[in-house]
């Protein structure tokens, strides 16, 4: 069916991505939005936009009836679901077809077949596709325990109705199985509406390899090469690249042929992805099929020269592919980084807040809906942008992308930008040796991963928070009069050091003297003093932020700065963003060790309360589970004792830092 008006049933960067191609193809475009997205960039980018629901915004984009009604009101004849939300919902795809509209994707039958991991596995086995040993249909703890004994530990639990790392748990010991099963069921039910779990053998030190497929309604099925998605945290991808450094031409052909065979067996049409695990013996096993456009589709576009969204739309209109398998050529190398609002050094904790300043790097492809002043809410996934680079070789691509990270400005909300830049430069990644357990094996508190602020960043914070920028630029350094202040690196949380900074005149101009103190140390302990000569100050305000240029010991740099509020400053230091706070007096961060007050580490919704007032608990016991950005996080008892007061209930929305409960510490009850 031909159509001239396309509704995009999604938001953010993927909505903008689809709208861009649709406009180029001459289609009229329709966006949809919730209350939370009323001023979103995808609303402005479309020819028309329809309001579809209130906050919580996540549910608005899952309202299939409202989406179909939006088509009726605007004259849209087709719906592109993007990824996430309803993109793999067979009932929605069927409802679209029943309404006489075109669903840009495979049929509802195929989505239903491949959307359930248990059914998909059976279908692939029937088609001769190798699968990971495991069992389906385990609904109780007794059944899952029996299956685990037959398979052998370690095992992995997976949500049968979805993917993306949600509802997945690796279990290494029988004693952990019951709790992990409960967590997996709960997360799966919340994310996909089904708590069905399958169990498989955990293939450790494997690679996550996926094969992109493209099929039309006329019997032509092609594969477009593979992507390596092995750099993951919590089973969610962070870095994807094409082609994989572990796949040679014969293996590529073998995996591609299996993928094509699988598509032909189920009658697949459109763009899709088959995901495989590749073990250390180069044996590959089918995991799941995504019947939609992937987040990481851009790297395949960069190495093939194809626009996958265009191909989706053409297939949905009944067109035949105009090229064959022999025409698909992979050129060069492409890598994508998923920029997420999260803190990698605090367990990848999701972050919410207002973006103070955002500036994408020049010279690479950036898919993003970010803008300075935009609010990042807890209702959506933590991914806020994708940075993609292409190079003639893998080495050239890595170098280009690492440099692009240093030219990116992301202030106001903590992101994983600096962490991703370190991943690119890690020896294992550089050598192409990353497996899915890579990050789980790393100590992210080590100096390689956790960089301290540079002298330029520290000087910028001292000058701005000390109110000395204009004074220092206006005349002789003597006018500063030995100005002194205390700063804390708030980015490091409890590990943040306090620094006493003094600005004074020297023989050649302004001098910054700093004396560092670590948490828990007395004034004379662990003191490290530094002194830097500052010259050539340059301050200029820009929309959404400012730039401070300064030379320290003869090296000039310009840094982006954004002041969130009095006494708190964000500074972009290469790929890292630091938050500095001005403090009147320094108190050791560990001064309240043993405190029984548990606060919410992030904004989110309480989905489970596992203990009640008066109950005795041990340190580390899970007490409350909160959900934010589609991830569940158990909050553990801060100390052993008795729960004195519970401040929250199930279903309650929390702000970061809000009190959750209080535990009367056993240590506090001890008498001398």
Automatic annotation (TrEMBL):
Gene3D superfamilies: 2.40.50.100, ATP-grasp fold, B domain. Keywords: ATP-binding, Biotin, Ligase, Nucleotide-binding. PROSITE patterns: ATP_GRASP, BC, BIOTINYL_LIPOYL, CPSASE_1, CPSASE_2. Its EC number is 6.4.1.4. Pfam families: Biotin_carb_C, Biotin_carb_N, Biotin_lipoyl, CPSase_L_D2. Residues 2-444 form the Biotin carboxylation domain. InterPro entries: ATP-grasp, BC-like_N, Biotin_carboxylase_complex, Biotin_carboxylation_dom, Biotin_COase_C, Biotin_lipoyl, CPAse_ATP-bd, PreATP-grasp_dom_sf. Residues 121-317 form the ATP-grasp domain. The keyword Acyltransferase does not apply. Residues 586-664 form the Lipoyl-binding domain. Transmembrane segments: none annotated. NCBIfam families: PRK08591.1 (NF006367). This is Methylcrotonoyl-CoA carboxylase. It comes from Alicycliphilus denitrificans (strain DSM 14773 / CIP 107495 / K601). The lineage of its organism: Bacteria, Pseudomonadati, Pseudomonadota, Betaproteobacteria, Burkholderiales.
């Amino acid at each position: 069916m031909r159509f001239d008006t396309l509704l995009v049933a999604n938001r953010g960067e993927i909505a903008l991505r689809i709208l861009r191609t649709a406009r180029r193809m001459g289609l009229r475009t329709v966006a949809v939005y919730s209350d939370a997205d009323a001023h979103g960039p995808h609303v402005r980018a479309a020819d028309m936009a329809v309001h579809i629901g209130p906050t919580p915004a996540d549910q608005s984009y899952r309202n299939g009836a409202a989406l179909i009604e939006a088509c009726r009101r605007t004259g849209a004849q087709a719906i592109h679901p993007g990824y996430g939300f309803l993109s793999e919902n067979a009932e929605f795809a069927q409802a679209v077809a029943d309404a006489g509209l075109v669903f840009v994707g495979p049929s509802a039958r195929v989505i239903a077949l491949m959307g359930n991991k248990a059914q998909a596995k059976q279908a692939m086995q029937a088609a001769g596709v190798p699968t990971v040993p495991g069992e389906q249909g385990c609904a109780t703890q007794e059944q899952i325990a029996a299956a685990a004994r037959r398979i052998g530990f370690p095992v992995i639990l997976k949500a049968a109705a979805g993917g993306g790392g949600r509802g997945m748990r690796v279990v290494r010991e029988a004693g952990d199985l019951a709790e992990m099963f409960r967590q997996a069921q709960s997360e799966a039910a919340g994310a996909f509406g089904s708590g069905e779990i399958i169990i498989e053998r955990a293939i450790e030190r494997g690679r996550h390899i996926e094969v992109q497929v493209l099929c039309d309604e006329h019997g032509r099925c092609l594969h477009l090469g593979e992507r390596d998605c092995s750099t993951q945290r919590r089973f969610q991808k962070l870095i994807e690249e094409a082609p994989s450094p572990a796949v040679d031409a014969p293996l590529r052909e073998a995996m591609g042929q299996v993928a094509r065979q699988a598509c032909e067996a189920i009658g697949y049409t459109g763009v899709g992805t088959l995901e495989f695990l590749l073990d250390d013996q180069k044996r590959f096993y089918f995991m799941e099929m995504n019947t939609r456009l992937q987040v990481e589709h851009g790297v395949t576009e960069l190495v093939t020269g194809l626009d996958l969204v265009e191909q989706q739309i053409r297939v949905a209109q009944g067109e035949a592919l105009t090229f064959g398998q022999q025409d698909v050529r992979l050129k060069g190398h492409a890598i994508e980084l998923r920029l997420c609002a999260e803190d990698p050094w605090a367990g990848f904790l999701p972050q919410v807040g207002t973006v103070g300043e955002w500036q994408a790097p020049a010279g690479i492809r950036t898919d993003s809906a970010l803008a300075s002043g935009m609010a990042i809410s807890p209702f959506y996934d933590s991914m806020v942008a994708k940075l993609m680079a292409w190079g003639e070789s893998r080495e050239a691509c890595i170098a280009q992308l690492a440099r692009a990270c240093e030219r990116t400005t992301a202030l106001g909300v903590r992101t994983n930008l600096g962490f991703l830049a370190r991943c690119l430069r890690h020896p294992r990644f550089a050598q192409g040796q990353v497996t899915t357990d890579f990050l789980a094996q790393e100590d992210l508190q080590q100096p390689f991963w956790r960089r301290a602020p540079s002298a330029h960043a520290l000087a910028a914070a001292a000058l701005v928070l000390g109110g000395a920028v204009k004074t220092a630029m206006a005349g002789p350094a003597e006018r500063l009069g030995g100005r002194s202040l205390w700063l804390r690196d708030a980015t490091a949380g409890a590990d943040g050091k306090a620094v006493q900074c003094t600005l004074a005149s020297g023989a050649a101009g302004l001098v910054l003297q700093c004396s560092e103190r670590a948490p828990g140390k007395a004034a004379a302990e662990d003191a490290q003093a530094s002194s830097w000569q500052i010259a050539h100050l340059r301050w200029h305000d820009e929309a959404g932020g400012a730039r401070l240029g300064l030379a320290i010991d003869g090296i000039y740099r310009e840094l982006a700065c954004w002041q969130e509020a009095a006494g708190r400053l964000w500074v972009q230091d290469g790929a890292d963003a630091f938050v500095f706070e001005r403090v009147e007096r320094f108190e050791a961060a560990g001064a309240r060790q043993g405190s029984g007050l548990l606060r919410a580490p992030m904004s989110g919704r309480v989905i489970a309360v596992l203990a009640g007032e008066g109950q005795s608990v041990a340190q580390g016991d899970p007490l409350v589970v909160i959900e934010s950005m589609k991830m569940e996080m158990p909050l553990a008892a801060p100390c052993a004792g008795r729960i004195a007061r519970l401040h929250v209930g199930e279903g309650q929305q929390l702000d970061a830092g809000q009190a959750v409960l209080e535990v009367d510490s056993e240590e506090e009850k001890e008498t001398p």
